[in-house]
Amino acid sequence: MAAIDLHSHSTASDGALAPAELVSRAHAQAVRVLALTDHDTTAGLAEAAQAAARHGIALVPGIELSAQWKGRELHVVGLGIDPEAQPLQALIAELAALRADRAERMAASLARVGYDDALEGAYAQADGGVPTRTHFARYLVERGAAEHVGAVFKRFLVRGRPGYANTEWPDLERAVAALRAAGGLAVLAHPHAYKWTGAWARRIIEAFVAAGGEGIEVACGTSTPQSIQQWSGYVRRYGLLASVGSDFHAPGQFVELGRMPALPQELPPIWPRLGIELA
Ligand code: AMP
Ligand code: MN
Ligand code: MN
Ligand code: MN
Question: From 11, 181, 232, 254, which residue has the greatest number of CB atoms within 10 Å?
Fold first, then answer.
């Protein structure tokens, strides 16, 4: 039942497990097909692929790209990408520069409320990568700013709070184009999480389809029966493919690997397009 999970994170972005540990945990959780989809980086894929070969797991090389459409942030999961593809690596380099610039602005604003070495702290948490907000959150927990990561987000890291800094992520169209140029399939990640109105959802899906997007993550760790019904409707209406993924970040946090609801039976799944047949 937990055989396939097409959305997960390792220490290469803001997950808590090293890529090889993530793959071991997937194996222990009966996941047989796993996509590693770190935020804006492919740095964990080589280690994950080696571990997957040892465990007999099919590793789908993936990524989760930060993007925007008309000023609204959204995430696009790429599945079956060639991590070496030049246009994708060019976009990744651009995203790293955007994140580095944002990190400096976040740190400057945190300094104004008394946390003066947040930049160094977040980089130390990021373990060689560029920090995400989660790395700032972990650093602030260490400094005693709040009890846990969730509380830090509420107090510091969301719009309107002192540690927040805006970023102009690349346009949706560019994200999808980079994934396609890398031979991958573009999937609209955790669509229920954005709280779009129906009219916005349709406009964004239409832009996504026009750009070459092919899938919607209908069943995620945080899906509800209502969200699954709503987004299944869009999959059918726009002739798209359905994807599933836990969005696992850390043991004991949100949701376990492979533990998202099942897809409605009648929806066309995306994985045959990745050459995967589930028994
Ligand atoms: P970023 O892409 O750097 O803006 O960071 C976004 C990441 O922060 C997401 O991928 C989540 O993992 C995490 N995140 C966002 N909101 C929250 C929250 N309220 N509590 C805990 N983690 C969060
Ligand atoms: Mn994350
Ligand atoms: Mn996301
Ligand atoms: Mn994710």
Answer: 11
- Whether 76 is in a domain gets the answer yes
Our count of domains for the chain comes to 2
230 class by beta-carbon count within 10 Å (0-12 exposed, 13-18 middle, 19+ buried): middle
pLDDT tens figures, 184-225: 999 999 999 999 999 999 999 999 999 999 999 999 999 999
CATH of the domain at 262: 3.20.20.140
- Tell how far the Cα of 96 is from the centroid of ligand 2, in angstroms: 15
180 alpha carbon – ligand 3 mean position (Å): 19
Q: Is 11 in the pocket of ligand 1 (CB under 6 A)?
A: no
Count Cβ atoms within 10 A of the Cβ of residue 94 and give its class: 0-12 exposed, 13-18 middle, 19 or more buried: middle
